Every structure is written in structure tokens, then in C-alpha cells.
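Complex record, two chains
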Amino acid sequence: MSLRRAIAPLLALTLALGLWELLVARYAPGSPFLPTPSAIGRWIWGAILDGSLVSATLVTLKRLGAGFLIGAAIGIPLGALCARVRVVRDTLGMLALGLQTLPSVCWVPLAILWFGQEESAILFVTVMGTVWSVVLAVQESVLAVPPLYVRAAQTMGSRGFHLWSHVVLPAALPGVLSGMKQGWAFAWRSLMAAEIFVVILSGYGLGSMLHDGRELLRMEQVVGVMGMVMLVGLLADLAIFGPAERWLRRSRGLSA
Amino acid sequence: MTQSAENTVQLALQGVTKSFNGGAGQVTALEGIDLDVRQGEFVCLVGPSGCGKSTLLSLIAGLEQADAGSMLLDGEPVRTPGRDRMVMFQQDALFPWLNVLDNVLFGLRLKSNLTEVECLEVARYYLDLVGLADRELARPHELSGGMRQRVALARCLAPNPRVLLMDEPFSSLDALTRDQLYGDIQRIFTQRRKTIVLVTHNIREAVCLGDRVVLLSPNPGRVRQVFDINLPRPRRINDPALANLAAEVTAALATHLATSESVE
């Protein structure tokens, strides 16, 4: 069934690429600003063969994984604390609300001044992009846990840490998961901003590759890397968050 | 169980008073409630909404604190929630992230004196008692409302509480399922001789299930009258004798409501 569903988008994609190729060949042949899909394809193929695209993707994914995990590891307990203690919610929670509205690229100048052109600057920007949305999502979903579950658990003798680990967090899990998904999306955007603007020598990621494409006026590289960035984002949604959400919803009977 | 044990008072309430700060100022939900519940007795609290019957149950459960009065369970004061008083709520309150068996095991696993094997044994015994032995791997959402309340009943009985507290557990069920559960509850009550306090606004239900029916009236919540129900069990909800008694209680309630309104 999913194979049949894939036919329409694939057909549309082929059609769009063919039209693009034709239009460029007809009206702007050889333009440095408008690469043809075939030129982009050739560049991607070459970059795969010489290993540069794969290694750049791995560098980026490693940074993303580290930033996201650190952000979630800080954000989940902080969010729970915000939900539990009113004073923390009114202070830290408000701060999180403010910082979450700050576009993550705004952290770049500060990160460069604090950490220099270093790996840690990139990590810092990614974590800052992730952590606040995770804090807010966890706080909201914990506050939305039906009090009935807590009351029922209390009458069965559940208290303190047990109540949190066995009732509140499992009950809040759907909200926490969508918070993680949002956090991931923010981490991804922050990391790209960081990689484009923080020029470092310790690792060459997709953002740096994109940046170099501009410097070298290689449009096929610029567009090719953009495609790769899109693909990574799409795959994470389709392969990780999508199935996790579907499993959670099905096991709790939240969707038919 | 010996006759003397049957006659010992298990739950003793004296002068229990509770008020809330609502939008319209202080509201006295309960005033000077005196009530003794004997061991193995089935007591039903009935009254119109606002008479504080659910609040009284929450106080006994330890989920809320009384402002004044004393509340003793086997001579010990009640302050916090505990496994010796399990509560069946209006909604089943089953945890959707656990299957039926794990829901029943939840309270059992918190009892430190049981091994995992013993926990499983007890949980399966009570699932069997409520007729759901074959559904232990189902998720709560896969069950009907009546089945879910049965699981909730098994979950409450499994840790072997001294008192079972029921807060209108049948009110969200359809009539047919409800009749079935009345039968189940009576069967289990006769088998296990558990002390039960049931809150309901359905007088027929109270008369069908209870050894005693305690009538409460609102503004402020007070005990108005206590009826002894001496009908033999199992009782059927459509039994004419039961209907007559229920009519008597209903008439008494109407009288009390009329007098309390004329006082205001």
C-alpha cells in the first residue's frame, strides 16, 4: 500500500525535475546561478564517490545527536521541575518562554565570543536551540496529566520518585515526545546556522559545505547540500519520530 | 469470620467537618458527620449533588484533610492515602500505558512483602474473580466501559485493602452493564466480606447493594437518616420489595430537602 502511495510523489518529482532541466537548458544554458538537476546530480554523485558528502553528513549528524541528547537531557528534568515547583515555573519557565522565541542563529555571535571558532561553540548553539522548547513541552505535558491518575496511584501507595517515574512521566509521554520532536527540529535548524557561520577546522559538516559552495560560486554544490539537509530532516521524521508517535498513539488507543 | 469480628467497628468518624473556599466565599461541605462502619459491612452514602458525599469519601481515602473531627481506621487516625483504603473512582482511572495485568499489579508491586511470583498469582486470582482472566494482555482502551470498571475493581481488591471505597463507580455505565456489575459486586462481597463504603446518587442502587443506606442532605452536608436494609442477597435491582424500600428512602430525602429549604 505504501509502495502505491509512493508512486504519485515520485512521478511529481520526476516531472518537476524534468521541467526544471528543460527550462534551464532552453532559457539560461550554462548560467552559474541556475544549475540543472543533472549538474546537481553529477555533483552529488561525485561527492558521494570521493566520500566528502558522506563524511560531512556524518560530522553533522554526530553534532546533531550530541546537541539534541544534551538538550533533551537538560530539558526534560528542568521541564519536570518547572511543572512541579511553581516558583521555578514562574522564573525559569518564563525565561524558557522568552529564550524559545529567540531564533537560534542569534546565539552564534555570543557562542563565538565565548568559545571561539571551536566545536564547543557549535554544540552550544545546538543545545540552546533545543533545550528551551523541550523544557516548555515537558512542563506543559506534565501539567496536563489528569489528576485522577495521580490520585489513583496515591491510594495504591505510590509516592515521590515512584509516582513520578511510574505515573506522571508515562502519562505525560505523548506530550514529551512531541516536545522532543520539536526540540529536534530546532536543534537541526540551530546546527545549520552554527555550521554556516562558525568556521572551524575540527570537522567539516554539511553547513560548512554549503558555505563553501557559496564562496566558490558552485551553485550545484549549494543546491545539492540543501537537498541533503532536507533529506536528513525528512528521514528523521519518517524513520524515528513518525513511528514512535504512531506506536504511542496506537498502544494507548488515541487514534483508530 | 466470627460474629464478634463482624460487630467490631472498623471505620469510626466523629464530628468530621470540611469546608472549601469557593468563588462565593466559604462553603461548608460537611458538618459534624458521625458514622461507624463495622467490619464486613456494606454502607452506601446517598444524597443529592452538593451534599458532600464524594468529599466524605475523599477524606476517608486520605486524599483530602478534614478541618475538624476524628477519623479512625481500626483505631488508627487516617491522614494520608494508603493501601488499606483503596478507591474505585467514577472513571476507571486505569493507566493507559499499562496492560490489564500490569494495571492490577501496580498496587501489588508496591507492597514490599510480596515476591513478583506472588504478585502475579494474586493479580490473576482477582482478574479471574471479576471474570477477565483471558484479557490480561489487553490495553484498557480495548475494553468496554464495564470491563474497565471490573479491572479497576480487581486493581482495588488485589492489595487486600481493609476498606474498599467506591465513588459512583457505576454512574458512567449503561443500565445493562450496571445490572451485571451489581451482581458481580454482590457475589464478590459475599465471598470476600470486604468492608465497603459506596457513594452514589442512585437510591435504588444503594438499596440494592448496601447493608445500610446513609442519607445525607446538602448545605451543609449532614447525615439525615440511616436505613437498615435487611433484604437477602443476592438482590435484584428490579425486585418489588427493593423498589418499595427505595421509594421510602426517596420520600425521606424529599422531606429533608423540603425542610432544609424552608429553614433557609
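Note: Chain A touches chain B through 19 residues (CB under 8 Å).
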